[in-house]
Amino acid sequence: MAIAQQVYVNQYGVPQVVNSVNVTNATIVVINEPLRPINGTVLVMNGTQPVPFVLLRNGSIAVFAFGSGVLNITFSANFTITSNSTFTTCYNFDEPINIKYAANVIPIEFPSPMSYSIEGNSVSMVLPPGMNCIQYVTLPPTSASSMTQSSSSKPPLPTSPSTTSKAAGNEASIIITAIAAAIIVAAAAIVIALRRRR
After folding, report:
1. Listing from the earlier edge strand, what are the strands of the sheet with 80-81?
2. Secondary structure string (H, E, C) spanning 83-104
3. Where are the annotated segments for Disordered (predicted)?
4. Are both 172 and 94 inside the same structural domain?
5. Is residue 150 a part of any domain in this protein?
6. 28 and 109 share a domain?
7. Claim: this prediction has a pTM higher than 0.70
8. pLDDT: is 2 or 149 the higher one?
9. pLDDT tens per residue, range 68-118
């Protein structure tokens, strides 16, 4: 039995586990999972056909009377979140685990040493075997998309000197006109005041 397992942490911070299990002549298959599934989210498929399964107390998934072929098992996994909106996910597995994070999910605490890479705008990492916990935060999707756009877009074109000089000239003439009007009003007020004194 060959198993390919991957974890994708979506934009809401929820880990999504994806298993691809290649089995031959099996009547019962038990798959140990790196994370405990959330009840009601497990889906086991053979192509387009659902396959019966049982979620065991230890978080493993038992699949019955399958035979041969490829099983696709997906589910949302348990996580914790603190009052300051920091997520924590703890993995316990005897093999390395591939984890990919959505663009707006930022890991802030993880085991070291560990291999990781940045693909586009998302972080991917390979957790070593054993018990490992990762803390991460989620940014609002709009903030992440604006960060993506600003990092991937070209710098703005400079304003042409002629446009800048025209704008500066217009502003200068408006200021001069305003000052002249203020001087005229002040002079008129002085003349009126002097006439009243006489």
Report:
1. 80-81, 87-93, 130-138, 105-109
2. CCCCEEEEEEECCCEEEEECCC
3. 144-166
4. no
5. no
6. yes
7. no
8. 2
9. 888 899 999 999 998 888 999 999 988 899 999 999 999 999 888 778 888
Q: What is the pLDDT of residue 43?
A: 95
Q: Do 134 and 38 share a domain, yes or no? A: yes
Residue 145 lies in a domain: no
Q: Which residues pair with 131 in a beta bridge?
A: 92
| Cα angle, residue 29 at apex, residues 41 and 48 outer, rounded to 5° | 55
Look up residue 20 and give its two tokens. 């691809």
User: What does pLDDT average to over the chain?
Assistant: 78
Structural domain for 181, as ranges: 158-198
**Chain segment 121-166, per-residue pLDDT in tens:** 889 999 999 999 999 999 987 655 444 444 444 444 344 444 444 4
Question: Residue 28 CA to chain centroid, in angstroms?
Answer: 37
Provide the token pair at 58: 């230890």
135 shares its domain with 73? yes
Residue 147 lies in a domain: no
Specify the pairing of strand 105-109 against strand 130-138: antiparallel
